[in-house]
Amino acid sequence: ILHDMAKLIIKTASGCLLGHEIRAKLDDSVADIYHDLDGGFTPMQFMFEWLPLPSYYKRDAAHKKMSDLFYDIVQERRKSEKQNDDVVDALMRNSYKDGTMMTDRQVAHMMIALLMGGQHTSSTTSSWTLLLLAQNPEIQEELLKEQKEVFGEDLKDLTLDGLKKCTLLESCIKETLRMRPPIINVMRYVKQNCEIPNTSYVIPQGYYVMSAPIITQLDEKCFPNAESYLPKRWLDPSIAAGTNKTPTENVIEEHVWATMNSSSARSSYLPFGAGRHRCVGEQFAYMQISTIISVILRNYRIKLNTEAGFPNINFATLICSPLDPNLIEYEPRN
């Protein structure tokens, strides 16, 4: 499922963000190039970027191929007087505050960063969501019922306004992001000495601070039954408002339960980060994943492959994707 979602995400993201002529150039071979590019981005790379590993050689070769592909596209755009309402044109037309324009090669590299920023995380989240739904057939039927309530019994075409009304679908994605956040840590650079309130601890300037969503989001103190896939927990108004209070033996502890739209950096739910560097593609990712899940569940019932079972997490890569084999079986609804 991960391999198929990777291809689907890169095609839909390129069509939506970069324009249809760019989408037309991205055949299945580009997904394979992205696979090599992704293979070189591991946690170890940040400490030992110079290691002579085959995956690093493949990564560098893939980066050159992608850079040349996007550079040629930018060059073709320069020759044409036609304006396009997409990110590529915005990068080509706009300048920095000092008036400096980006070079075509810089634009090409920004295009790679744009696709990479969302391709891996969204394909991973789509895969985990489908795998978790495959484990829970009753939730699949509830989602189909919701689709019919919002879009009609004949399941009219999806719309953005309609997807916003699919609260159970939104909750399923939120719960997936809670249990299987694609990024296992979020780091911030300390620009000035930072005192921890009510303690003697000081984080010195120049250090890095790390938050680990996969720890806080699976903490029973923050999310009861944390290891269980319970999408309806997000339909609780107190959780959505971030005011849920959980009683303990001696004291009432208030836990910050933030929704996907919350910007609170104090939240225990951080799949998209927080603060001024919070992921700018959050709403696009939600729309994209919601659309994919909706189309699949309208047409198929899904279940786990019996022999493969439910996959473990691949912690060796920068994005916590499902380990191979990650197989799903489809049964046409009609």
UniProtKB/TrEMBL annotation:
MF (Gene Ontology): heme binding; iron ion binding; sterol 14-demethylase activity
Family to which this protein belongs: Belongs to the cytochrome P450 family.
* Record's protein name: Cytochrome P450
Keywords from the named record: Heme, Iron, Metal-binding, Monooxygenase, Oxidoreductase
Chain sites annotated for binding heme: 279
Q: Which InterPro entries match?
A: Cyt_P450, Cyt_P450_CS, Cyt_P450_E_grp-IV, Cyt_P450_sf, Cytochrome_P450_Monoox
PANTHER family annotated for this entry? CYTOCHROME P450 FAMILY 4, STEROL 14-DEMETHYLASE
Instruction: Provide one Gene Ontology biological process annotation.
Output: ergosterol biosynthetic process
Q: Which Gene Ontology CC terms are recorded?
A: cortical endoplasmic reticulum; perinuclear endoplasmic reticulum
What is its cofactor? Answer: heme
